[in-house]
Amino acid sequence: MKKNLLKLIFLVLFLSPNIKAATVSCSFMSGEAYDISSGAWIGTAGYEDIWDIFGDDLSLPIENSLLANLDAQEIFRAGETDMGTVYLVGGDMGVEGRLSTIDDGMLIIYSGFCSVGFG
User: Fold this and answer.
1) How many domains does the chain fold into?
2) Distance between terminal CA atoms of the chain?
3) Of 38, 84, 110, 117, which cross-links 28 as Cys (Cβ 3.0–4.6 Å)?
4) Torsion angle of alpha carbons 27, 32, 36, 38, nearest 10°?
5) What is the value of pTM for the model shown?
6) Would you tell me how many other CB atoms lie within 10 Å of the CB of residue 89?
């Protein structure tokens, strides 16, 4: 059912000339840090830490051509923010998002769920 809904959204998106772009809003729920040199796990960020960094959510405008990647259910690079690189994957549970950044010799990865808004 979700696949059909995604296909309908994509069809409307491509047939309507008034809809120019989409925005992805991600709410991150967890964050983990790894040492760049050894790959060792350093620790996790708690909910309060994530709230201090992102607030309610992180919004990112994406091009319409990238929306087809959500239906493919494969991970793809959605874009850059000043906080890091955003990756998305569409699936049976909705849209999952990851934001990764490198800071002070650490690779930090935040994980959460995203929603797509049109218009």
Assistant:
1) 1
2) 23
3) 110
4) -160
5) 0.77
6) 19
Give the Cα separation of 47 and 100 in Å (integer): 17
10 Å CB burial of residue 118 (0-12, 13-18, 19+) is middle
Contact of 60 with 86, CB cutoff 8 Å: yes
Total number of residues shown for the chain: 119
**pLDDT digit string, tens, across residues 23-41:** 899 999 999 999 999 999 9
Collapsing DSSP states into helix, strand and coil, what is residue 81?
strand
Q: What share of the chain is helix, strand, coil (3-state, %, to 5)?
A: 25, 50, 25
d(CA 14, CA 66): 12
- Reference 43, options 55, 54, 34, 52; nearest CA is 34
Cα(22)–Cα(20) distance, integer angstroms: 7
- The pLDDT score that the predictor gives to residue 119 is 67
Full residue range of the structural domain in which residue 85 is found: 2-118
